[in-house]
């Protein structure tokens, strides 16, 4: 990956992520490695390493670095894991997962945003991410089961089809709530049982789709 602006990434990790309790070494290294400025629109490039979300077009945003780190640590990706991401956005979250050693299938419902993610990932030299333009709330059984599933938009509930696509021992991380504010939830599968943990309030754009919100 492009290592320019490495000093800004190091400062981002030290001040925004390490200082707020993120400890997973894979996550920290991924955040130091992925060139976030390649995943934000050019007018916002100077703000790429600030700790707030930025618009990417079509009503979508790139999440603030700290939230990306939190969700990645909760998902706990390991090298060789297969991860399903619902909501590709700019491609940055998928790039962070890929930098942790995972293979990522990223689903994006908006064609222009899916193309943006593909372009950004290619520019950053990310190879182990496949972006597909589909309704992610319906899952992607072709590559199931998944070691991890990450939903990057606010869901009214977790779609059952996604729980079915989790591998035994797999984790699903999602913001769940109403259209304006959600709670970050992690679900861990143990055979046919699911253990749910709640991890604080967040705010994401709504998850649109068959098993999400209406457009």
Relevant terms:
two-stranded antiparallel sheet, globular, alpha/beta, Rossmann fold, 215 residues, 27% helix, seven-stranded mixed beta sheet
Write the layout of secondary structure elements.
Elements (H helix, E strand, L loop, with lengths): L5 H12 L7 H9 L20 E4 L2 E3 L2 H11 L6 E5 L5 H8 L3 E6 L2 H13 L5 E5 L12 E6 L8 H5 L1 E12 L4 E9 L2 E10 L13
Parallel strand pairs: 3-4, 3-6, 4-5, 6-7
Antiparallel strand pairs: 1-2, 7-8, 8-9
Helix pairs in contact: 1-2, 2-4
Tell me what the structure shows.
By secondary structure, this protein is an alpha/beta fold. It has one domain (6-202): Rossmann fold (3-Layer(aba) Sandwich), CATH 3.40.50. The chain has six helices and nine strands. The strands form two sheets. A seven-stranded mixed beta sheet has the order 5-4-3-6-7-8-9. A two-stranded antiparallel ribbon has the order 1-2. Helix 1 packs antiparallel against helix 2 (25-33) and helix 2 (25-33) packs across helix 4. It is globular, with a radius of gyration of 16 Å.
Short description:
The protein has 215 residues and is an alpha/beta fold.
How many domains, as an integer?
Answer: 1
Strand order of the largest sheet: 5-4-3-6-7-8-9
Mean pLDDT: 95
Oligomeric nature of the chains: single chain
What is the molecular shape? globular
Order of helices and strands: HHEEHEHEHEEHEEE
Cα distance spanning the termini? 36 Å
CATH domain fold name: Rossmann fold
Name of the top-level CATH class: Alpha Beta
